[in-house]
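Thread: sanity check for a docking pose with flavin mononucleotide

Original post by kr_44:
Hi all, I'm comparing my docking run against an independent structure prediction. Below are the sequence and the ligand SMILES. Could someone generate the full complex and paste the structure tokens? I mainly care about where the ligand ends up relative to the chain.
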Amino acid sequence: MPNHSLQKIDPRKVSLAPMLDWTDKHFRYLLRLVSKNIWLYTEMVTTGAIIHGNNLPRFLAYNDQEHPLTLQLGGSIPKDLAYCCQLAEQYGYDEVNLNVGCPSDRVQSGAFGACLMAKPELVAECIATMIDSVTIPISIKTRIGIDHEDHYEQLHALVEKVSQTGCRYFTIHARKAWLEGLSPKQNRDVPPLRYEFVYQLKKDFPECHISINGGITTLADMQQHLTHVDGVMIGREAYHNTYLMADIDHYFYGATETKPSRKDILHRYTDYVEQEMIKGVPLIYLTRHVLGLMHGCYGAKNFRRIISENAWKKNQTADLLIQAAKEVNCD
Ligand SMILES: Cc1cc2nc3c(=O)[nH]c(=O)nc-3n(C[C@H](O)[C@H](O)[C@H](O)COP(=O)(O)O)c2cc1C
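Reply from moderator J.T.:
Ran it for you. Here is the predicted complex with flavin mononucleotide included:
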């Protein structure tokens, strides 16, 4: 049974991991229907896309319901990061996060993401400049190491340097990244998880808010990690098994009301889909995010099949979701 003190509950206790192409504003809206409390992150947006792209709303727009919401930036030029932080503050984001964990080649050639772990001074300079440019909090998401630089002392040194800038919010993906030889996808599974590194960081930096990320798939996992660190960040499981997150308001945020059913959530998301289609968003962009909502229910496979086979068809309407849900036997 969850045990909540009367103290204010930490809003960063459970967060949604930033995931390129997955955690766009439509998925975040869906997840907000599932949990009122989970802290949401955008996908990584590069400073280059914001500064040189010609469509700011495409990169920065979100739905009001999404708060609390962090914009994740990819970049390593302090003044560009500062400028993007200022835009984020104007747009009303609650926090900006610097990505120091993405291992893709494209990101490495732009000299940001995980390869920044080898340059703690530059990371600290970026974070210090970001902090100076805005009043909203600045946070950082890193791996535990890269390539052969994977000793706890190196992670400790990075966190020490960054925390000296005044940065207090750290999320650690508890596996290192191999920058050469492994794809981004393999880098999410192949290097082993070393949760003990993250637990040790919390002991060494008790004043910092430390969230742990990587391979967390159950409420029991979350509860166990929260006995060592301040927050848990959930990625793939939140996308593929979305309804799992419906329990976190009760377990971790003290909510007492009954959680919404899967079908309630689907109906409310269908209303949103209708509105978005009126604005010109293609149905297929909106339906792909619900495929994980019925995970584990009898008929979930048919639900996914009906949506996947029909969402791209001309003149298809949002009602497709309601029709597909008739296949499912769940609460
Ligand atoms: C499709 C996909 C895209 C991702 N994109 C990003 C990203 O934009 N920024 C980032 O920091 N991490 C990104 N990640 C990594 C996740 O944030 C997370 O660290 C990783 O999936 C491990 O957490 P999990 O085991 O709970 O999924 C991505 C992961 C996936 C699966």
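The chain has a mean pLDDT of 94. Hope that helps with the comparison, let us know if your pose agrees.
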